[in-house]
Amino acid sequence: MKIADLEINWPKTIALTVLTALLFWGYSCQPQVASLVNPGVKITRPELQIELDAIIATAEYRLTELNKQQAFQDIIFKNAMLMAETGTMNPVGILTLLAGLYGIARGTKDLKDKVQKKNSS
């Protein structure tokens, strides 16, 4: 390529250079939005999807925990109603109550240990 060719085709050369720069900029600069977890941080689409999946998983886990607690409350209420209606103690109901209390205590301890382990990491 000669200098004379550049002098003649300078508009094409500048346009090609600008277009190349814009293509590189457009390809390398991904769109960003504020993070769901840390609003001050800008994140890309894949990072947003990871945060969203983590939030959904946390919500599903907590919903499962609520369902377990509700089932436990239902068992206690049914046993209390049975004792109130019949005036007698149901040994199976008492065993169920004790097993449920043990399960809740054990689950709470395990959850506390997991949170402490995660926070210490």
Question: How much is the radius of gyration in Å?
Answer: 32 Å
- Overall geometry comes to rod-shaped
Number of strands: 2
Domains counted in the coordinates: how many?
2
Strand order of the largest sheet: 1-2
**How would you state the average pLDDT, rounded?**
82
H/E topology pattern: HHEEHH
Low-confidence stretches: none
Name the helicity range: over 70%
The proportion of residues in beta strands is under 5%
Q: Biggest sheet, in brief? A: 2 strands, antiparallel
Straight-line distance between termini:
61 Å
Structural class: mainly alpha
Number of helices: 4
List keywords for this structure.
121 residues; mainly alpha; 2 domains; two-stranded antiparallel ribbon; 2 strands; 3% strand
Compact overview of the structure:
With 121 residues, this protein is mainly alpha-helical. The chain has helices at 3-8, 10-28, 45-86, 91-120, and strands at residues 33-34, 42-43.
Task: Please explain how this structure is put together.
With 121 residues, the chain is mainly alpha-helical. The protein is 80% helix and 3% strand. The protein has four helices and two strands; from the N terminus they run ααββαα. Strands 1-2 form a two-stranded antiparallel sheet. A hairpin with a 7-residue loop joins strand 1 and strand 2. Helix 3 runs antiparallel to helix 4.
